[in-house]
Amino acid sequence: MAEHDHPETDPTPPRDAPVELPLPPLPRPFFLIALGLIGVVLTWLPLSIIARARVFTTLEPRIQIFQDMGVQPKSREQQTNALFADDRAMRPRVEGTVPRGQVEDDDRYYKGFLRVYDPAKGTWTIDFNKSLPDQVKINSPLLHRGQARFNIYCYVCHGLDGSGHGPVNERVNELRNNNVLDMTWTAPAILTDNRIRAELDGQIFNTITNGIRTMPSYGSQIPVADRWAIVAYVRALQFSQQAPAAAPGVVPTGTNIEEK
Ligand code: HEC
Questions:
Q1: What is the pLDDT of residues 167-216, one digit of tens each?
Q2: How far are the Cα atoms of 54, 56, 75, 81, 183 from residue 78, in angstroms, in the given order?
Q3: Fewer CB in a 10 Å sphere around the end CB: N or C, the chain?
Q4: What CATH number is given for 140-241 in this structure?
């Protein structure tokens, strides 16, 4: 037979050869499965730590792998330090030092008034600036600056024209008229009325700086130069409401505008 000429390609095994049956797959030992599962679960650990760190806050300092200069010996506030004779880590300021550029030694400019001592009576009196201090020059940029600042800081209560009808006042009155708000309300002053006209420049400056009665202070928000610009602009508002028709362009006395 032709097949028997090529015994090496004959698929039929010889009769006496041992039969190799395919073995059933070995069952994987349980500990390997368990280890695999544990390994999978362990990979979730960094994820859950990151997720937790994003949600919770802690007072502990964060873990810093590279210290760089983050940790170094130093004295913190209120600690002791044996290096100094008085053991205080916080050093008091050297006597007589003044931060450069921050000496506010001109009360006429920085406060708008002088405190005057009367030795006869033994009392202090407040002498408000009658006019703008010498540092402040009345000109168009100053009034425009004052207008811009007024429209930011004062308008909400006193209104653009100083009439006291700013949006805050109008809203409160609306709520009170509709019985939504039950409260007493001190209306913002009418800045153009005769009472405020009669006030001295230093007084208005001081009102802006420290507030007055129910009006809050704006000293921390408005720098000194801008406060003076606002004072000048309040004078301009007052003039605009009672400008003498006969003499346009002439600034009435009491506004101090013509003095500068
Ligand atoms: C939050 C509202 C509010 C703002 C903002 C405000 N004021 Fe007033 N202002 C008042 C009220 C209210 C009074 C009246 C206070 C009182 O009589 O109890 C007043 C009073 C005044 C008076 C009169 C003070 C006096 O001697 O009786 C002046 C001047 C004045 N404000 C200027 C200003 C200027 C300038 C600004 C902007 C820098 C300003 N105010 C911003 C509420 C405000």
A1: 999 999 989 888 888 888 899 999 999 999 999 999 999 999 999 999 99
A2: 32, 30, 9, 10, 46
A3: N
A4: 1.10.760.10
Q: What are the tens digits of pLDDT across the range 129-149?
A: 999 999 999 999 999 999 999
Mutate-to-test residue for ligand 1 from 129, 147, 155, 158, highest number of ligand atoms within 8 A of CB: 158
Are 149 and 142 spatial neighbours (Cβ–Cβ below 8 Å)?
no
CA of 211 to the centre of ligand 1 (A): 7
With vertex at residue 146, the alpha carbon angle to CA 142 and CA 147, rounded to the nearest 5 degrees, is 120
Q: What is the pTM of this model?
A: 0.64
The domain spans of the chain are 140-241
Give the separation between CA 89 and CA 99, rounded to whole angstroms. 21
Spacing, Cα 208 to ligand 1 middle (Å): 7
To test ligand 1's pocket by mutation, which of 200, 215, 227 has the most ligand atoms within 8 angstroms of CB? 215
Can you tell me the distance from the alpha carbon of 79 to that of 179, in angstroms, rounded to the nearest whole number? 57
Question: Ligand 1 centre and the CA of 37: distance in Å?
Answer: 73
Distance 189 CA to ligand 1 centre (A): 6
Contacts of 231 (CB under 8 A, 6+ apart): 132, 146, 201, 204, 205, 208
| Nearest of 201, 208, 204, 197 to residue 241 by alpha carbon | 197
Best residue among 201, 212, 226, 233 to mutate for probing ligand 1, ranked by most atoms within 8 Å of CB: 212
* Residue 40: strand, helix, or coil: helix
Ligand 1 centre distance from Cα of residue 104 (Å): 25
